[in-house]
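S1.2 Input.
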Amino acid sequence: MRRWLTEKSAERQVQGAEASLARLIAVANAIEEARAAQREPTPTELAALEELRHVFRLDLLGPMPLEAMKCIVIDPALGGSDVSDTARAEVNVAYELLRLFETPVVS
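S1.3 Output.
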């Protein structure tokens, strides 16, 4: 039973991360398009980006290791040609922040 729960939890972790990553990429792409059109992003867009950054980081946490989530969720999503540099940067910062906290500190 415990194994089944762990597997289901891992499936939900991947699904949640994929969904929040898709939304994060869409908002980051919109912000980059606005900047390319010589327009400042709206406060709503910036607030949405900040919120999605947080949601995506939370969705990466779960029974699956962070490195596995990178291989299963992040790398395939960033491999597309429709991902802006802003989106890549946002995703990489979110991942690296979690990786930093996952790494034990040696003194």
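S1.4 Remarks. Residues 13-101 form one domain.
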